[in-house]
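Hi V.,

You were right to ask for the full record rather than a summary. Here it is.
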Amino acid sequence: MTAEIGHFALILALLVAVVQATVPLIGAHKGRQAWMAVARPAAITQFGLLAVAFGCLMQLYITSDFSVLNVVMNSHTDKPLLYKIAGVWGNHEGSLLLWVLILSLFGSAVAVFGANLPPGLRARALAVQAMIAVGFYLFMLLTSNPFERVFPVPINGRDLNPLLQDPGLAIHPPMLYLGYVGFSMAFSFAIAALIEGRVDAAWARWVRPWTLAAWCFLTGGIALGSWWAYYELGWGGWWFWDPVENASFMPWLAGTALLHSSTVVEKRDTLKGWTILLAIIAFSLSLLGTFLVRSGVLTSVHAFATDPARGVFILGLLIVVIGGSLALFAWRGPALVSTGLFKPVSREGALLFNNLVLATAAAAVLLGTLYPLLLDAIGGGKVSVGPPFFNTVFIPLMIPMIIAMAIGPILSWKRADLMTAVNKLWLALLAALVAMAVVSVLRSEGPLLGIIGIGLAAWLGAGTLIELTGRIRLFRAPLGESLGRLRGMPRAAWGMTLGHLGLAIAIAGMTGAGAWKVESIQSMKPGETVQVAGYDFAFEGVKSSQGPNYSIVEGTFNVTQNGKPVVTLNAEKRVYNVSSRPTTEAGIHTMFTGDLYAVIGDEEDNGGYVTRLYFNPLVVWMWAGVLLMMFAGTLSLTDRRHRVGAPKKHQPSAATAPAGA
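Predicted structure:
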């Protein structure tokens, strides 16, 4: 009965979404307040129905109800409770249900907290949100029903993919979807603005919090996926430019551009059309990621669907949403007139440069991701576009943007003098040169880009701190006044400062882990020692044990440096009972300078084991930088000016500096 309740709730949610997609839109067009008011209860009701459906599916997994096909294909009685719950979204049908649940969550949030929104804009935005939901409801009910029954009922299930039975992967999909689907709210506001024909500073203030929330979640989701790949897959890396990785990275790039562009709309009443286009592109790339993962064109641990019919349905939905929104933009976009004027050398110009680089980078990643698929589709054969292409194209694009990131916040709005701004950054230039010199001495071997990357990280970090000291007039005003300015800084300004500082730290970590990683792959017998980056890894042997639903072979490595003990690493190889599929759990010891990393592989005929040993310099800096970026975004969200419908603050007090972007 639980499955039928969930299925019925989905059908009711579809009907409510149809009403929400039509009645408020017509009401906004005709100026009928009662019809527009339907959007609010409809959005809340839709979320309630989705919560019931999702709760029913979770109950089916927790109780191991193998009369439901979805549970049979993705669960097992021996599976720990955490992974029974994670199995709800660890498959095609369940992940779609999570997708629309989050979609309805954002819609209901606008309905509840958007009381200060103009009724027409709120009605149109919620109607657009419901239109998106209708497409996904039809997709689920017609091709991907999560509540489909199976007969005869099997005794047990086939278990969840062992690679997904991990705490990081249990949290990763919901976090990622909160980012993906979060951009739907910016998209809905953009389409509503195009229909209404008005974009102003108030619109930008309403859009920014939803975009910022989506950006924070997507940043966290990407980081969790990267972290999982780092410690679970046993290859010592954290990013491989896999198409599924790219599918999440592209909307992140577009969303980052949208965040900065909406700042210009709010403060200078310009770049209106461009900001609307970015909102459309960010969500379109999120939908494209959904298509890539669920169409069957990719083979990946993340690629859930292999039925071509599903791929055709999603492709059709993609064409309708993206094509329709771009057509509407082509029709209504030219009517969005910007009144703000600015010189190329200005804060607006720097933000526009940021946008153009990010958009170009997203286009380059899109090209590299889709080209092999398109070539194969037209019979051109199979080609592989991997890290060499992306690194060659993407990294050079980022270098000028990082340089501009330190200069832009120092520039004034409307017009500025470039040399004056650059002169303020002489300490940042000195910090970059010193960092490059130190690294070139300590790491004489390695790519030139590694030295440049560390220099850029130092430039951006020092430039960000210099901008902060200038904002509070440190060393140019009494200390008490500077501290007063520091305390009075808006949270959005703190968010910008900490976000840029976090990126600088993350760049240093990415550079170190990518440029100077030391790897050693060999067969080792107990008692043998291998030296990696000055550390001696002594293999002590293996022992066998049993996990909840898998067997374990655990290898032990005693690591020393110059004869002094450093750490004992325990690396595991797991074989799951149901699928007999192996997974790895790397033994990792994190230090400020880098990670010691060990992986145990298969046993060989001579009694030795294949081992992979690594030293990954500065990799913890990358995770720390990303966490700081997420904290910065969350802090910015608490700024009252980023609350939906909140007006701007009045003139700041004398002790308060002007807000930054």
